[in-house]
Amino acid sequence: MYENYYGFTEKPFQLSPDPRFFFASDHHQRALSYLQYGLDQGEGFIVITGPIGTGKTTIARNLLSQLGDESIVAAQLVTTKLDPQELLALVVSEFNIQSKGDSKADLLQAIEQFLIQLNKQGKRALLIVDEAQNLPSETVEELRMLSNFQLENKPLIQSFLLGQEELKPIIQAPNMEQFRQRIIASAHLKPLSVAEVKEYIIHRIHQAGCEKDELFSENAFELIHEKTLGVPRKINIFVDRLLLFGFLEELDVINSETIMTVAEEMEIELTGSLNSSELTSQEPNQKTSQQVVVNSTENVEHIKEVLRDVEEILESSIKQKVKMARYVDKLLKHKSKLYAEEQIDK
């Protein structure tokens, strides 16, 4: 939508992880260094934790994109709540291993034969487990058991665990002592600072082919940090919306006024909401619902408040439709201009 207007060759703030847009903040670079160190060691577990949206998956994708070592055969799992046997079945599937059956014994035997065959070829397996906080402790323990596959005291498979903060108590549980002893390095990702938010945004717009460092006013970055708390995924959502708004309004610079306007719009929308407060339950309390008086002053005021909220939402929706209509009109004019130029060239 806004790419041509601002001179981008591609969308700079897409949500899907892309190694080309990897930004090495201090914490992210340290985590990546730990992963690379773990690869060099060829054994043990590396654990990377961090809040939602801080870039754990992007780090994994960046690591895989940099793997120039053909001796490493890598697979990445994005887990749900798997039991140990389901985990083994997923490992078999991701490594394209042929198994004689679906029993746990069959799966383990197939994995072991696959790892031994890799070893004979001078290769080893790397398993990256994303969203590892979803795994029950017994499934994490199954990963430790896989690390017991060895030949001549050398592990045949190595695992990296990437997960949200909920992964920490799982690993720190008393029954996980043997697993903890296999961890050779760990890192915890943090949100970006104000300075890093500025570097992050400029890095991504440059990576997308735009060299306009003045696209954002100087005070914009601190305000963007305030609205997104420095979380990369929230920054992507918010800045993408800022650029769309700037395109629709034909703005050359994204300033504080623009940021506040877009932030207010997003506070009452479902997509890309920046409001981190928890939603209160909409279910009526059984005790109080029996005592509601329809014509009570309190209830009337509540209804008025609800109607005001609905009015705000409808007004915002109308504004969005008007903006989208303007965008379509602008897009059609742009297409017509290109078509006319093509006809002149012919």
UniProtKB/TrEMBL annotation:
InterPro entries: AAA+_ATPase, AAA_22, ExeA_AAA_ATPase_DNA-bind, P-loop_NTPase, XrtA-assoc_ATPase-like. It comes from the Bacteria. SMART domains: AAA. Transmembrane segments: none annotated. Pfam families: AAA_22 (PF13401). Residues 42-206 form the AAA+ ATPase domain. Gene3D superfamilies: P-loop containing nucleotide triphosphate hydrolases. PANTHER family: GENERAL SECRETION PATHWAY PROTEIN A-RELATED, PHOSPHORIBULOKINASE _ URIDINE KINASE FAMILY. This is XrtA-associated ATPase. It comes from Thalassotalea castellviae. The lineage of its organism: Bacteria, Pseudomonadati, Pseudomonadota, Gammaproteobacteria, Alteromonadales.
